[in-house]
Each structure stands twice: as structure tokens, then as C-alpha cells.
Design goal:
The protein has about 170 residues and is of the alpha+beta class. Helices cover about 30% and strands about 35% of the residues. It has a 5-stranded mixed barrel with strand order 1-3-2-4-5.
């Protein structure tokens, strides 16, 4: 009987494309249990030229999202790779909506706090209607690419996929 080392389980606050179960399932091959949550003193921005959002600390603002529960170390590594160099994983305190309980969770915070490409308020429902289908396809392509010896970073996969999709001369 093979024994496996105990795994750490993580809570991860998601607020953008990972709110869509289809994107999470494409990355993790499952959808972990989750709870609605709020991250206080942060704001969710649009990013010029991108369909996904960024969060940064902003006093008296809040970001609604959900906490993925029971994320394993290998799954957290996949999320780290997916979020790429644009984001920094930080431990934050979120409030669960149902119980108002406070919980420490990992969150992917935009790395450049002075980024002039950040603006406005990102909206999940608008993203879902306009971009989710293509984003899920891009995510599936990212996971296939991840299996290859010379896999591209997610930003390169994203840019290649969405620029190709926007070019009517390419099929």
C-alpha cells in the first residue's frame, strides 16, 4: 500500500475569470467547493487591452468574489502558472458572505500598482456574456500547452489566442 505525504490545502479568493466554474474546471479538472466572499479595501479594475481584471488595495472599496476551498498544492501551482508574472499571490483576509466569518485566503494581486492601463470597474456578467466562451477555449489551450516541454507563459497564450480571434483574416 502506497502512502502519500499529507497535502496542504489552501483557500483561494477569486474575483475574475475564475468565478466561472468552466474556467476553474479547465484548469483543475474539478470545481472545488466554494463560498461567496468579500475582500475589503481592494478594487477590481479593467485592464486596457485585456478581458480579465486586476485587483489592488484601495481604501474603502471592496471586491466581491468567492473563496475556492480545499485547493491542493499541485492545483495552487497550476493557478500560480496561470496567473503568470502579472500577478503576485498574497495572503489576504476575506469575509464569507453567509457567515460573516473572516478567513485567510490566497489572492492574486496585480503586480504593478502604478499601472496606467488600469481603469473603471470590471464586471463579471459583462465578461461572461462577451468573453467567457473564448476564454475557456484559451484556458484549455493553455493547459494543453502546459504539458509540452517548451510551454508558453499564460500571457503569451492569451495574447496569441485573443489577437488571432480578433483578426478577421485568420481562421
Amino acid at each position: 500500500m502506497a502512502s502519500s505525504a499529507p497535502q496542504n490545502l489552501h483557500s483561494v479568493f477569486v474575483y475574475g475569470s475564475l468565478l466561472a466554474d468552466e474556467v476553474v474546471a479547465a484548469l483543475l479538472n474539478r470545481v472545488p467547493q466554494s463560498s461567496a466572499a468579500v475582500l475589503h479595501n481592494f478594487h477590481r479594475f479593467n485592464i486596457k487591452g485585456r478581458v480579465y481584471p486586476a485587483i489592488l488595495p484601495v481604501e474603502n472599496k471592496k471586491v466581491t468574489g468567492r473563496v475556492l476551498l480545499g485547493v491542493t498544492d499541485p492545483e495552487l501551482n497550476i493557478l500560480d502558472t496561470f496567473e503568470d508574472v502579472e500577478y503576485e499571490r498574497r495572503t489576504v483576509e476575506v469575509s464569507l458572505v453567509d457567515s460573516l466569518e473572516k478567513l485567510e485566503a490566497e489572492a492574486y494581486v496585480w503586480g504593478n500598482s502604478n499601472d496606467t492601463d488600469l481603469y473603471g470597474d470590471w464586471n463579471f456578467e459583462q465578461w461572461k456574456a462577451a468573453h467567457m466562451k473564448d476564454f475557456v477555449k484559451m484556458t484549455m489551450g493553455f493547459m494543453e500547452e502546459l504539458e509540452l516541454p517548451e510551454s508558453k507563459p499564460r500571457v503569451a497564450t492569451y495574447e496569441n489566442f485573443f489577437h488571432r480571434s480578433d483578426d478577421p483574416t485568420r481562421s
